Amino acid sequence: MEEALLRAVLFGTPLLLACLGALLSERGGVVNLGVEGMMALSALVAFAVGLKVHPALGVLAGMGVGSLLGLFLGVFAVSLRANQFVAGLALAALGLGASGLLGKRYEGTPLPNPLPEGMLAVLALILALGLHLLLSRTRFGLYLRSVGENPKAADLFGVSVDGVRYLALALGGGMIGLAGAYLSLAYRPSWTDGMTAGLGWVAIALVILAAWQPLRAILGAYLFGLLFFLQFRLQGSVPIPSEAFAAMPYLLVILVLALSGRARAPKALGQPFDRGR
Amino acid sequence: MRRILGLLLLALGLAWAQGDKLKACFIYVGPIGDAGWTYAHDVGRKKAEAALPWLETRYVESVPEAQALPVIDRFVKEGCQVIFATSFGYMEAVLEGAKKYPNVIFAHATGIKRAPNVATYMADFYQVYYLNGLAAGALSKTGKVGYVAAFPIPEVKRHINAFTLGVRAVNPKTQVLVRWINAWYDPAKAREATEALLAQGADVFAFTEDTPTVIQTAAKKGAYAFGHYTPMLKFAPDHVVSGQIVHWDVIYIDFLKKVKEGVYTPKNLENVDYFWLLQHKAVEMGADYGVPINPKHVPLLKKAQMTVGGKKVSVYDRIMALLKDMQSPKPAFDPFTGPIQDRKGGVRIPAGKKATLEELLTMEWAAPGVVGDWPGEPK
Question: How many Å apart are CA B84 and CA A8, to the nearest integer?
Fold first, then answer.
């Protein structure tokens, strides 16, 4: 039982971090479908720096890369007012492709001094609480939410819609980068092409499951981690075929989504803001 | 018209046979950077190119199984004379392509269907798995050995069975706990499956997944592990005991040489099937190249005893003797020699008989000692 809870937290941590990162920008009205690629590239850079310099610096490098990619998405999704879904998908493909291409030389190299997972798990929890406070208690949180709900009104009140959205993408990108760094420096201290293996997409779904609330994201991520562990822990001891187990976490997410009713998304989500119109 | 075309094709074929460069092209199912299956094939390709001065190669990676035919079209247009397709799922595309291009030689890895211009090949691990099983049986203190398995297909089942037969030859009470992840490549699933097995008490691990995740996870808790596909000793130098290592280059070089010499033509491949084992040096038992057993664990295996033909021998000596035998041109020992029953008690291989190639390639039953779900298990 303790083992299951521990696994729920340790496997849930990268999901939680990536989910928080996507959640932050979505509260500001920008959908980020690039999470998978952002995580992959951050994982690679974090690993490279962790291997050559120090794992702690690798974490910072991973977060930095995540932030830069967030800003990069902002250029298209905020400034150029491109379709956010297309821009995000392109970023996902770009990140995955670039990490595969640049990472070949790190293939088959172990990381001699990995980071403790527990430390990063605690950090993720603190970040979730911090994000909750940021959104609910601070001026920036108010601006961010207003930009996500009604950018026109926010603009009239003198809030820089683009500026707030860029900041949200950079901060969220940092968290997504941290999720990537967690994977390659702690969870599985080595690097292989495509090591994110779909976690980024799950994180995007978790944002909806969490109803755009950081505290619910904690529960969602850990629930997913628990189910993921249990599918292997229970396999063979209960008469359910392994294929059904593999689908279980996803089925449960759908079930929870269906039961959680209409979680309200930020009103301006996915809509580029153009002052002239 | 047809005759002229035929003559033209024949002339083309002759021209290529006499040309100095032979062009061989590879279709990979995964990225070269996967550290597993595709990576190993690419190492084989590079070694063949280094060994054969007249060889020119080309490859396309991460080709989805439904996209294989367009890649074949492209390769033929670029003048590829030999095309290696390295995934089971390419089977239909290869057969279709072979019909479309009767003068191109195709070789399909892990395939089971051949044609006049389609050969099949495979470097198989079942002997190595048996030997690793002996070591695993000797090292487990809890009596539980963990196996993180990819897909429930005959190849993987054959390997788990051979491994389990080895484990039980040392200690008939040891169980092999199998967990399926239903993926060839998924580090997160491999990690959590290993954690689940550790939580259930497994203290020795083997696996089929294309990353060293199982090894890294097991080592953290002090459990032993056997590498898979490529040398993985460096990922846990104190905990990797041995493993299975592939040498695709041995097959590629042999095959291409025979094409170059005109032994293999687009007309006579119907019966060309490589199922190469230890004796052909297509596979190796080892924690690293040339290291059959991690020296750190040799004393443990020397101390461990097992009974062979009523006599006590050390497990280490048994492994080394069998390894030597299996590497010889005519091995006397085969892991799948009867009497062998499945875990439900049905006789699978009668006493004195050896499993045929057909039986090996279609193996669905589970060996005694295998614990866990086993999709497709015969009644």
Answer: 43
